[in-house]
Design goal:
- The protein is of the alpha+beta class.
- It has two domains: 88 residues, Outer membrane lipoprotein wza domain like (Outer membrane lipoprotein wza fold like, Roll); 67 residues, wza like domain (wza like fold), CATH 3.30.1950.10.
- Helix content is 29%, strand content 27%.
- β1 and β2 form a beta hairpin.
Length: 212
């Protein structure tokens, strides 16, 4: 026969409670992480369109033609003034398509025989990401290729003192014309628990205020 004192039972009971509590915490943490991943997964993948539009700024380099202007800004009517070609409509075109178009025109007008052109977009001023709510500088931000949620929050001056980092809502327009919104915890991203969210031009970010 084994005799167990009352004190021994109390210790065993306490240890059992601690173990059970630990299991609950592990389960809760796993559930929270799973929910965090699910939130981001429920947001449609961004449509990364790099077509240029009015206000966008890009550099054009023509090999061997140093005297040609390098920097061009797309005008409100969607055109640029390119040397020897006058006005060229570029709005709605990808950078590679603009390169091909300029090459075609330069050859057709017999200005260059085999032009080698490189185009690099410096600013997508026609593409915006809006950030509102509890940030230092709410407003519209110029979208850049590869822009993520933390980039946008930083560009807006960071969170304000009354921001609720656990309730940051991203609203996105899908290719089907639908609007999808998800809530993300910024702290989970900065702590490495959740991957940063790649943004799409046209996204709206709203940072809620803490409830006191």
């Amino acid at each position: 026969m084994v005799h167990v004192t009352t004190d021994r039972l109390s210790v065993l009971g306490f240890r059992g409670m601690v173990a059970a509590a630990g299991l609950v915490l592990i389960w809760a943490g796993a559930t929270a992480c799973a929910r965090g991943r699910a939130v981001v997964l429920s947001l449609p993948a961004p449509q990364q369109s790099t077509v240029v539009g009015p206000g966008d700024l890009f550099d054009v380099t023509v090999l061997g033609e140093k005297e040609l202007a390098h920097e061009y800004r797309v005008q409100p009517d969607g055109t640029i003034d390119f040397p020897y070609l006058d006005r060229v409509t570029v709005a709605g075109l990808e950078p590679q398509q603009i390169e091909d178009l300029l090459k075609q025109y330069l050859i057709e007008k017999k200005i260059l025989i085999a032009p080698q052109i490189t185009l690099v977009v410096k600013q997508y001023n026609s593409k915006k990401v809006s950030i509102i709510g509890a940030v230092q500088k709410p407003g519209n931000l110029n979208w850049t290729e590869g822009m993520k949620l933390i980039d946008a929050v930083s560009a807006a001056g960071g969170l304000s003192s009354i921001a609720d980092a656990s309730h940051v809502r991203i609203t996105r327009q899908t290719s089907a014309g639908k609007t999808v919104s998800v809530t993300v915890n910024i702290d989970d991203i900065t702590d490495g628990k959740l991957a940063d969210v790649l943004l799409q031009a046209g996204d709206t970010i709203k940072v809620d205020q803490r409830v006191f």
